[in-house]
Write a structure and sequence with these properties.
The complex is a heterodimer.
Chain A (H helix, E strand, L loop, with lengths): L2 H11 L12 E4 L9 H7 L2 E5 L6 E7 L7 H4 L3 E3 L18 E4 L6 H9 L5 E6 L2 H13 L5 E5 L12 E7 L12 H4 L2 H21 E11 L8 H10 L2 E3 L7 E2 L3 E2 L2 E2 L8 E3 L7 E8 L4
Parallel strand pairs in A: 5-6, 5-8, 6-7, 8-9
Antiparallel strand pairs in A: 1-3, 1-4, 2-3, 9-15, 10-15, 11-14, 12-13, 14-15
Chain B lengths: L1 H10 L11 E4 L2 E4 L2 H6 L6 E2 L1 E7 L2 E4 L1 H8 L5 E4 L1 H8 L4 E2 L3 E5 L7 E5 L5 E7 L12 E8 L2 H6 L1
Parallel strand pairs in B: 6-9
Antiparallel strand pairs in B: 1-2, 2-4, 4-5, 6-8, 7-11, 9-10, 10-11
The chains are: A alpha/beta, B alpha+beta.
Chain lengths: ~300, ~160
């Protein structure tokens, strides 16, 4: 079997029939920067037709645009960000972000960092990390453009976050992953099962380090744009069993997490995760975990 | 450094009051930290709080965050109409007929913020032509020094 056939067969075993999906461009309104401004009307006048994304409060699909959506005055002023619809979900799953100390563990290029800052109302402390220094330039530009002023950025591998000697109330782990065929041209040609296993191992290391820095009653939102269960449900099953974390119910777009993966049975709480097969959005996976108090 | 920021603000006819203890320099770049950030900031951060700008070869280059802050206080400002605003973002100068309103200095050589019809700061420039409304001739009035289109040009 070729690379594509192997993956398509895996998806079939997991209950999804492969279909080609074209990614749809989406934007997210930065609420903090648009107070008292009618952004939708301004964009409409500029020739941008938007369609509200039903499962997101501040997300819109770009139906049609006469102008480049990444070069309007409104974009350059930080009134909105370009962010894929499914990628807008994780940051919205936290409770009480304002005034807290929040970690965005794999932050660049900064779409979710800006979203977190917006949800925090630019209060508290938002620590953003990325291991690749050259990616910090894009992250910093993003923060400046969107007038974020509660963030602090470090060139640091999240697996060394203990060095900062900080405790976090909330941690976003949008971890490096294998991605999926919707957002990467030639994805099937480039990816192997060995990549998936390597990524899954790295993700476990990230989870373990993040759990150490999470304060009692703190929340972790874990997300990937991978469709591979080893990077998703299997990792969450491992985290729940080994890291003193409990999987939380979430109310968002997507299907229940898989509790049976290639013949292995996972904990029933994995159902609380959300798996998004490609369709309306790219492929995605999200899970919320809470630290068990006093252990 | 505070002098450089204050001098830049003065060139724009503005005054800015900053708590020196919360302004931090990092590799020639200047950041204003909140109290909460100041408490947790390690020495080796890459970016923090509100970016104010950088000093290169002794010259201060303001950030758009600083320009936006100055746009909220009394300063030299010109308000431009939609097309002039778009051309300015594209790196072009402002012509006399694109100006809707002038606030503060009208003097040749003064620096001024360029504001769109919604009151948002698009950048700043230098007054190079007469701004007097009686002048019929439509020439360059504001020479573009820096505009928000820079966010796109940086990525290239």
């Amino acid at each position: 079997m070729s690379g594509k056939e192997i993956f398509v067969d895996r998806y079939r075993q997991l209950g999804w029939e492969f279909e080609n999906v074209q990614p749809r461009q989406a934007i997210r309104i930065n609420v903090t920067n648009t107070k008292g401004k009618n952004l939708e009307e301004r964009l409409q006048i500029a020739g941008v037709q938007l369609e509200k994304i039903p499962f997101l409060e501040t997300g819109y699909w770009v139906r049609n645009s006469k102008v480049s959506i990444g070069a309007t005055a409104e974009y350059l002023l930080g009134l909105y960000s370009i962010q894929e619809a499914a990628a807008q979900i994780p940051a919205t799953l936290f409770t009480r972000l304002k005034g807290n100390t929040v970690l965005d563990a794999c932050a660049a290029p900064g779409g979710k960092t800006v979203q977190l800052a917006d949800l925090m109302g630019n209060t508290g402390v938002l620590v953003a990390l990325d291991v690749k220094k050259r990616r910090l330039v894009a992250l910093s530009n993003h923060l400046e453009r969107c007038h974020v002023n509660n963030a602090i950025v470090y060139n640091l591998d999240v697996r060394q976050v203990s060095r900062l000697k900080l405790g976090f109330h909330r941690i976003l782990l949008d971890v490096p992953c294998s991605g999926n065929f919707v957002c990467g041209k030639g994805w099937f040609r480039r990816r192997t099962i060995a990549d998936v296993r390597r990524n899954a191992k790295q993700q476990k290391e990230i989870l373990a380090e993040a759990a150490k820095c999470l304060l009692d009653d703190g929340e972790i939102v874990y997300s990937t744009c991978s469709l591979e269960p080893e990077e998703n449900e299997v990792n969450m099953d491992w985290a729940a069993k080994h890291l003193n974390l409990k999987i939380q119910e979430i109310d968002c777009y997507g299907q229940k997490g898989l509790t049976e993966v290639f013949g292995s049975r996972l904990d029933v709480s994995i159902e609380r995760c959300r798996r998004i097969w490609p369709g309306e959005t790219q492929g995605f996976f999200v899970c919320k975990l809470k630290k068990v108090m006093g252990k | 450094m505070m002098k450089k920021i204050a001098r830049f603000a003065f060139q724009l006819g503005a005054k800015i009051a900053l708590n020196v203890n919360f302004v931090v320099e990092k590799a020639g770049r200047y950041f204003l930290l909140s109290e909460a950030l100041k408490k947790v900031a390690g020495k080796d951060f890459y970016y923090a709080g509100t970016y104010f700008g950088k000093v290169k070869n002794g010259k201060f280059f303001p950030s758009f965050n600083l320009l936006s802050m100055l746009a909220k206080v009394e300063a030299n400002k010109i308000v431009v109409e939609k097309k002039a605003a778009w051309l300015f973002i594209c790196g072009r100068d402002v012509f006399r007929n694109g100006i809707l309103e002038v606030r503060g200095s009208r003097k040749k050589g003064s620096h001024t913020l360029v504001i769109n019809e919604f009151g948002e700061c698009l950048g700043f420039g230098k007054i190079v032509g007469k701004l007097d409304e009686a002048v019929k001739k439509n020439g360059v009035a504001i020479r573009n020094i820096s505009d928000i289109g820079d966010f796109l040009r940086r990525e290239i």
